[in-house]
Specification:
mainly alpha; Small, acid-soluble spore protein I
C-alpha cells in the first residue's frame, strides 16, 4: 500500500470520535466499493499496531471463523 494513502487517510480522520470512525467503517462496508478497501486497510493497520497480542489473537480467530463459512 502506498504511504501517501496511509498519510492522507490518517490526516483525514485525525481527531474524529469513535462514533465518527464507526460511521466511516459502516459506510465503506455498506457501499461495497473496492476503492474504499485501502482505507479500511489503513484502519486495520493502525488498530493492529496498538493492539495487544491477546486482541490480535482474538481478531484472527474471528477472521478464521468468518472465512470458514
Amino acid at each position: 500500500m502506498n504511504f501517501q494513502i496511509r498519510d492522507a487517510i490518517t490526516t483525514n480522520v485525525h481527531g474524529q470520535s469513535a462514533a465518527e470512525l464507526k460511521d466511516i467503517v459502516v459506510d465503506a462496508i455498506d457501499r461495497g466499493e473496492e476503492h474504499l478497501l485501502p482505507g479500511l486497510g489503513v484502519f486495520l493497520e493502525k488498530w493492529w499496531q496498538q493492539a495487544s497480542i491477546t486482541e490480535q489473537e482474538a481478531f484472527t480467530q474471528k477472521l478464521e471463523q468468518a472465512f470458514a463459512h
